[in-house]
Amino acid sequence: MEYQLDIGAVTRNMGPLIEGLWVTLQLTVAANVIGVAAGFALALLTTSRITVLRWPAMLFVEFFRCTPALIQIVWFFYCVPMIFNVFWGPVFMGIIALGLNLTAFNSEAYRASIQAVPKEHLDAGIALGLSPRQRITSIVLPQALRNSVPVLLTNGIGIFQQSALVAIVGVADLMYQGKTLATATYRPIETFTVVALIYLTISYPVSQFVNWLERRQSYA
């Protein structure tokens, strides 16, 4: 029997997808807040001259960059409660897993930007009598943040898309709700097409903004 498309089966049941999208956006925003803030701190540690600070930070970065995000999520959901005897809510656990993953990737973006800060600017800070903390907050941070914004936004889009992985551990995000709806309506083609279009609708404008920002910076 020929398959008959029925997009109405999805549009008439958009409520769960909207609820799932809200969870996905919560995961994305919270993970980005963690990634942007902790990523800079981690970048400072990876560029430190103190070995006992630099090596653990580098191991953290390599672990999260060189293992699949899916494995990290599953490990956090199943191993952390067993090892540390802590039981957090699924959304919070997803935020932590995605946030730490993003922290590792953002730290590399920050590290490249920190190393690109002209040495003369740091020397000027020393000549002005600024303390190390003041040089970081007044000289390094503003320049590193400005130079790394395109990469941070690109990483942010990536974590928005990777947040779909939390569906495998039962977090009711957009992907999870889409899978549930597809099973209930027997309309996988229509359902996952709509889910893909929702991801595209949010990701595409941000990616275009990143392209515009990169062009602007290249002309600056």
UniProtKB/TrEMBL annotation:
Part of the binding-protein-dependent transport system for glutamine; probably responsible for the translocation of the substrate across the membrane. One of its GO terms (cellular component) is ATP-binding cassette (ABC) transporter complex. The keyword Repeat does not apply. It is a multi-pass membrane protein. The keyword Transport applies. Belongs to the binding-protein-dependent transport system permease family. HisMQ subfamily. Keywords: Amino-acid transport, Cell membrane, Membrane, Transmembrane, Transmembrane helix, Transport. Gene3D superfamilies: MetI-like. Its main location: membrane. Residues 21-210 form the ABC transmembrane type-1 domain. The lineage of its organism: Bacteria, Pseudomonadati, Pseudomonadota, Alphaproteobacteria, Rhodobacterales. InterPro entries: AA_ABC_transptr_permease_3TM, ArtM/GltK/GlnP/TcyL/YhdX-like, MetI-like, MetI-like_sf. CDD domains: TM_PBP2. NCBIfam families: HEQRo_perm_3TM. GO terms for molecular function: transmembrane transporter activity. GO terms for biological process: amino acid transport. The chain crosses the membrane at residues 20-45, 57-78, 84-105, 151-172, 192-213. It holds the Pfam family BPD_transp_1. Coiled coil: none annotated. It is found in: Cell inner membrane; Cell membrane. This is Amino acid ABC transporter membrane protein 1, PAAT family. It comes from Paracoccus sanguinis.
